[in-house]
Write a structure and sequence with these properties.
Blueprint lengths: L1 E5 L14 H12 L6 E3 L2 E8 L2 E8 L6 H12 L6 E7 L7 E4 L8 H10 L5 E6 L9 H5 L8 H18 L4 H8 L2
Parallel strand pairs: 1-4, 1-5, 5-7
Antiparallel strand pairs: 2-3, 3-4, 6-7
């Protein structure tokens, strides 16, 4: 069973922001496979279902981005979930909108949600799908940028990013993460 965590912030004011693209991908998977992500457990909204023949758990931490690790660790401990079955979906300013990048280890790269996961897991080795949101123009405050909404002109690229992420998750369910990286990076 794979457990897939999308990072974001709870609350309607954050729903369409760049920082919530991980939630958007979880919602897209939930819609596509008719999985209701509504059970409140482990400081998160959780939904269990199947993607193809694979059982999955879709998770949206409700702790706010900077504390995402609290929720993921609570899930892992309570359900005795294996970190090798974990995939995190999150926004990445160093990846172009419309693109994704997959990694299975590394630093947080300045992303506070990933910093929290590393802190609570005690390792930098876990499967990641980085979803491109572009970098802000020079001089723009990064916090304001990631909490801003996508422009109408970016909607098609946003949809491509979410679709590519869903494709990569689906592939990772029946292939190793290394095989998924080889197919979906670049």
């Amino acid at each position: 069973m794979k457990w897939i965590v999308g990072l974001g912030n709870p609350g309607s004011k954050y729903t369409q922001t760049r920082h919530n693209i991980g939630f958007m991908a979880i919602d897209a998977l939930a819609d596509k496979y008719n999985i209701k992500v509504q059970d409140s457990k482990c400081k998160a909204l959780i939904g269990e279902g199947r993607i193809g023949t694979e059982k999955v758990v879709l998770i949206k931490p409700m702790t706010f981005m900077n504390l995402s690790g609290e929720s993921a660790r609570a899930y892992m401990d309570y359900y005795k979930a294996d970190i090798s079955d974990f995939i995190v979906l999150y926004d990445d300013m160093d990846t172009a909108l419309g693109k994704i990048r997959l990694r299975y280890q590394g630093s947080a790269g300045g992303h506070n949600g990933i910093k929290s996961l590393i802190q609570h897991f005690g390792t930098q080795s876990f499967n990641r799908i980085r979803m491109g949101i572009n970098r802000p123009e020079p001089g723009r405050d990064i916090a304001d940028y990631v909490l801003s909404t996508f422009a109408k002109s970016e909607q098609e690229l946003l949809n491509q990013t979410v679709e590519r992420t869903c494709d990569a998750v689906e592939h990772a369910l029946t292939h190793t993460f290394e095989q998924t990286m080889a197919k979906h990076n670049g």
